[in-house]
Amino acid sequence: MKILFPNMLKWVGRAGAKLHSDLALEIRSAIKSNGGNVTMAAIEAMPLMKSVVYESLRIEPPVSSQYAKAKRDFVVESHDAAFQIKEGEMLYGFQPFATKDPKIFDRAEEFVPTRFVGEEGEKLLKHVVWSNGPENGTPTVNNKQCAGKDFVVLAARLLLVELFRRYDSFDIEVAASPLGASVTVTSLKRASF
Predict the structure, then answer these.
(1) Please, which contacts does 175-178 make with residues 24 or more away whose CB atoms are closer than 8 Å?
(2) What is the pTM for the complete model shown?
(3) What is the Cα 53 distance to its own chain's centre?
(4) What distance in Å separates the CA atoms of residue 13 and residue 65, rounded to the nearest whole number?
(5) Among 95, 101, 13, 102, which Cα is nearest to 52's?
(6) What are the entry keywords (predicted)?
(7) What is the predicted pLDDT for the residue at 144?
(8) How many helices (H) and strands (E) does the chain have?
């Protein structure tokens, strides 16, 4: 969270007032339609907000490096080659190589808030591997996918929901930090509708 939240605020803040307005409208409308409460049903009725969270995880995974020893022989395939891995070999994965693959993601180096909206966007979730597995996958005892991945996504969604319930827009300053970005909120525009 210490890495994800500032990085997400950085990308959302830099995206500007149009995205902020769209998020505020979607979030407030969904909450109003659900009796004025933040519920799981309300959160599920916010496709843009969900896409923004996934896009934040895609463009700058909070844990970019992962490693493990192969438990068995297998083949790793890329777009143009295949690599034989032997049991016991050390494997290293740098998530941004996968999450910014231009053969999978159009405009891979850009923050595209609507990337995961709609049926075609949702198909791309299998390539969002920030949690050491596909976003539409499930952690099990037999894989190394983050057991808390759903909690992380929920917490990130709630951060955006609570921010845009109260504010129409915000401005930021971004600086480097050993853990990602250091984000300072320089102004907040209170909710006007």
Answers:
(1) 177/6
(2) 0.93
(3) 4
(4) 25
(5) 13
(6) Fatty acid biosynthesis, Fatty acid metabolism, Iron, Lipid biosynthesis, Lipid metabolism, Lyase, Metal-binding, Oxylipin biosynthesis
(7) 82
(8) 7, 6
What is the structure's pLDDT at 68?
A: 86
Q: Give me 17's structure tokens.
A: 């007032």
User: How is 120-140 classified by DSSP, letter by letter?
Assistant: HHHHGGGG--TTSS-TTS---
pLDDT tens readout for residues 67-106: 889 999 999 998 999 999 999 999 998 999 999 999 999 9
- Give the dihedral sign, CA 2/117/105/15: negative
Q: How many C-beta neighbours within 10 Å does residue 89 have?
A: 11
Cα–Cα–Cα angle for 48, 54, 55, rounded to 5 degrees: 85
Task: Give tens-digit pLDDT for 170-192.
Answer: 999 999 998 889 999 999 999 99
Fill in the amino acid letter for 6.
P
Alpha helices in 128-176 (DSSP H): 149-166
Of 12, 57, 17, nearest to 161 by C-alpha is 12
The 8-class DSSP code of residue 1 comes to: -
pLDDT tens digits, one per residue of 118-150:
999 999 999 999 998 899 999 998 888 899 999
Beta bridge partners of 176: 181
Taking the C-alpha atoms of residue 134 and residue 154, their distance in angstroms, rounded to an integer, is: 16
